[in-house]
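Model the whole thing, not chain by chain.
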Amino acid sequence: MIEVRGLKKAYGPRLAIDDVTFTVGKGEIVGFLGPNGAGKTTTMRILTGFIPATEGEVRVAGFDVFEEPYAVRERVGYLPETPPLYPELTVGAYLEFCAELRRVPRAIRSVRVGATMERVGLRGWEGRLLGSLSKGYRQRVGFAQAILHDPPVLILDEPTSGLDPAQVAGIRELILSLAGTHTVILSTHILSEVEALCPRAVVINRGKLVAQGTIPELRAGAPGGAWTYVEVRGIDGPKLGKLPGVEVVEPLGNVEGWEAWRVRAAGDPREMLAARAAAGELQLRTLERRMPSLEDAFIAMVGREGGPA
Amino acid sequence: MSAVYTIWKKEMRVYAVNPTAYAFLAVFLFLSGLFFYLGITLTGEASLRVLASNLAIAELFILPMLTMRHFAEERRQGTLEMLLTSPISPTSLVVGKWLASMTLCAFMFLGTGVLPVILAYYGDPDWGVVASTYVGLFLAAGAFCAAGLFSSTLLDDQLAAGLIGILLLLPFWLVSRAEALVGDELGEKLQPFGVLRHLDGFGRGVIDSADVYYFVAMAFCFLLLTTRSLESRRWR
């Protein structure tokens, strides 16, 4: 539903987006991940046709964004980083305006506005002025605006930024309710959000694509890959390090009188360690294979400093 | 067409609760009353002649301030992004906003409607002249609002946009006095571009097609520039 090929965007001599290529399939929810200033908003604005690309091809819902902008606009719902609201209007008047703007047929307009308000938890808020709403409710209205015309493609720019945990949970539930029927691309720099919502993610940094894949694939991409967590007694670090296959051991401290270690080995060292424990060479309480966290993988990809070039 | 109506309706709703709109309405009505009073006491005529020429100049300053928020504010609020990524054309957007500001102008002129009534009470005004004066002022308002909308697309800051709008319009006023600035010969050539010259006829009860074309063309050019300015985002 979304195809981006060789996308470049230059602001003067500076490349904000440099040769980015990715696709999002129908009904998928894909996370667009990157540190602040990586080019997420720029990419999303190009996807919606708000700003033009310098180079490359972008197709949304089967239409070229530059050649057929109106066909794309009709099929896209867009929630910019700050919800686009008129403080002078009431919630009801605003959503009615959006429905007209999005060409929701007159006959179903009020029903659709009502159903959307119900869906985002705004029932009974028709008469409130947008300017008087709290951040969480503004975000809900912004979200309502994006899904009002039931677009097949949704582009959400940091949909949960600045919300409290309960509001975040609410918005996430809404996004998950769209899975399967809608194609969603959502940008964020919050890793737990991607893990909670998106089976797949695209990672960019400094305008360049650094990785894309499913969350387990991305996690496996962290340096060192999977490792083994052990809690042992009766063996010290150097000895542990000399066991067959073991490459690196790092101490993780004392846990209730047991020494915890991070063991990296060629292959999976669990059987070997269990056998040694059975042979009485060491006492073993915990033996666990662990994947690197998405955070480890992310930091490895974008570097600790991240940020714009 | 329905897109234009959608925008117009939204703008009218925003105007209805916008204190700035009321403030400018009040200023306009105050100035109208003042010019009317001065005109009557200075000339002793039962006419709107003095009022009309002064009100045209007042429009030149007030209307850009009234339209300054249109695009500057939309951009600041992030709503311009929503409008320009929705399936309506920039032309509908511009025309809708222009018609909304013209509707407000119509209310302004309606508010001055009491003045001819006063004239009729004390004297015997020529109703044809009164009507043509209003036509002229309304045409000028159309051109000035269009210029204000254009300047509003240029800057994010409302007030700066409003001032730029006034700056854009000032030459159209000043060329009426161009002889004093650039000498008789060039001044004579610049005269036809002046706003006051084209309002003269309306004030005398003559609706000359050349004068109508002048204001219509000015409005059209500025509206076209506004649309182009919005679209230019696509190749900036």
